[in-house]
Structures are given as structure tokens and as C-alpha cells.
Write a structure and sequence with these properties.
alpha/beta, 9 helices, 10 strands
Length: about 260
């Protein structure tokens, strides 16, 4: 059974149709790469999954639970949005770390905020805080940053900041980890270190949706690839089919830009 089902998602900004009847599914433990030119709707699709944008039409389900249905007003209630976002961990292209917090504090923050709302928080505060800190240390060690946990974002490289952002996204143990062009703000050397971390997550069967312009990475890491153009899914399939034998002319034209010269 699919962990994620997206059905007929549409989104417009004023009179501009940005997403046009988007449908796809994702199995648990799979990595989905979404490729396409700038302005094709990739990031808007990811923002709809994370409820940073509200679709005009369509349905989003996770683990067979309907998180959003445009025809059901109850799924649009603001009070439920934060809970729904817990299904997804989002890694932004520009890190979005809090500059006033250290690396470990950035990773701990979301869990601390959620824990503070629990009925037993006051009586178990010290125990809960220690548990959250230990988890954050483990995640930063997984990212190769155990020696930089007390550094502030301005003391870290772009690649290190992005690895802190990945640890932060993993802290709430989301069902699906989402990446929005995670290397677009990085130089080639730093890009490699971030892609290596994402590859390791894929090897550990982390369920992921990856919006990327790194074609070789998308081909090598993904179990399924979607090519978007002008707000629509033009082609989707396994990496071998999409990259080596695309069916659609628009897909061939797009991929040819990365093979010329």
C-alpha cells in the first residue's frame, strides 16, 4: 500500500495555473525525484504537501489517512495543519536555520515546542529535555557534525548548515522527508557532501520526495522519477525508463540540456 497518495492537485495564483491535475503515489521506503525546469511547479507541489500552500483542488493521503480534501472543509482547519505537517519533514534550499540558535538547538527546537504542550511536561521537563538532546546529538553525529553541535549557523559552511537542516527535519521522525533543491545554494564540493548524506538516507530506506536539478543524482538515487513542465506531470516512471528511454518529446528536450557538450 502507498504511504503517500496525491490525487488531482490543482493550484493557481491569481489567474496563473501553477499545478494542473497532479497525481502520483509513493511506497514506503522509496525515493521519488521530481525534475523539471524552473517554474514548472516542482516547489509549489512540495509546498502543498507540507501545507505551506493550500491546493485549490485535490486530495492528499498519508498512510491511508486523508490529510487534505478540497471538497471537505474540515481538512482545511488551521488548528489541524500543524499536526498534519508532522507527517512531513521539509529541508529548504536555503537551510532556514535560526541564526540565534546553535546547531544542536536548531535540531532540538521543534521537539521541545511539542513536548512543552504535553500534560506531564512540567513534572518531567528535565528527563524530556535530556532525551531530546540525546536524539539531537545522535542525528548530528549521523550528519558528521558531532564536533560542530555548539556552533552557530554563521560559523558553519553551507554544506554543514544543510546537514543541520536535514537533522532537524529528521528529529520529529516524519513519515516522508522532503527536499526542495537542497544543493542549489551550494558550490560543487559542498553539494557532494550533502548528496552523500541523502544517498545514505536512501540506502537506509528513508521515504523521500526530492526536488532536484542534479540529474545524475536523481537517476542514481530515485526509485521513481517525475518530470514536470508547465505545471503538469509530463512523464513518470523508473529512472532507467525516464532517463534512458523517455517517451515524451518534452522530456527528451529537457534531458538533452544535460548531455550536450
Amino acid at each position: 500500500m502507498s504511504i503517500l497518495e496525491v490525487e488531482h492537485i490543482c493550484k493557481s495564483f491569481n489567474r496563473t495555473k501553477v499545478l494542473k491535475d497532479i497525481s502520483f503515489s509513493l511506497e514506503k521506503g522509496q525515493a521519488l525525484s521530481i525534475i523539471g525546469s524552473s517554474g514548472s511547479g516542482k516547489t509549489t507541489m512540495l509546498r502543498c504537501l507540507n501545507f505551506l500552500e493550500t491546493p485549490d483542488k485535490g486530495i492528499i493521503r498519508v498512510n491511508d489517512e486523508t490529510l487534505f480534501d478540497a471538497d471537505d472543509p474540515s481538512t482545511r482547519q488551521e488548528s489541524a495543519i500543524r499536526k498534519k505537517r508532522l507527517h512531513f519533514g521539509l529541508v529548504f534550499q536555503s537551510f532556514n536555520l535560526f541564526p540565534q540558535y546553535t546547531a544542536i538547538q536548531n535540531v532540538m527546537l521543534a521537539r521541545e515546542l511539542l513536548a512543552s504542550e504535553q500534560p506531564d511536561y512540567k513534572t518531567r521537563k528535565k528527563e524530556i529535555s535530556e532525551e531530546i538532546r540525546l536524539q539531537a546529538e545522535t542525528l548530528l553525529k549521523q550528519m558528521g557534525l558531532e564536533n560542530r553541535k555548539d556552533n552557530y549557523p554563521h560559523q558553519l559552511s553551507g554544506g554543514q548548515c544543510q546537514r543541520v537542516a536535514i537533522a532537524r527535519a529528521l528529529a520529529l521522525q516524519p513519515d516522508i522527508l522532503c527536499f526542495d533543491e537542497p544543493t542549489s545554494a551550494l558550490d560543487p564540493e559542498l553539494t557532494e557532501e550533502v548528496l552523500r548524506v541523502i544517498k545514505e538516507l536512501a540506502d537506509d530506506n528513508t521515504t523521500m520526495v526530492i526536488v532536484t536539478h542534479e540529474m545524475a543524482f536523481a537517476r542514481d538515487v530515485a526509485d521513481h522519477v517525475i518530470f514536470m513542465d508547465d505545471g503538469s506531470i509530463v512523464e513518470q516512471g523508473d529512472p532507467m525508463q525516464v532517463f534512458e528511454n523517455p517517451k515524451e518529446e518534452r522530456t527528451r528536450q529537457f534531458l538533452s540540456r544535460f548531455t550536450q557538450g
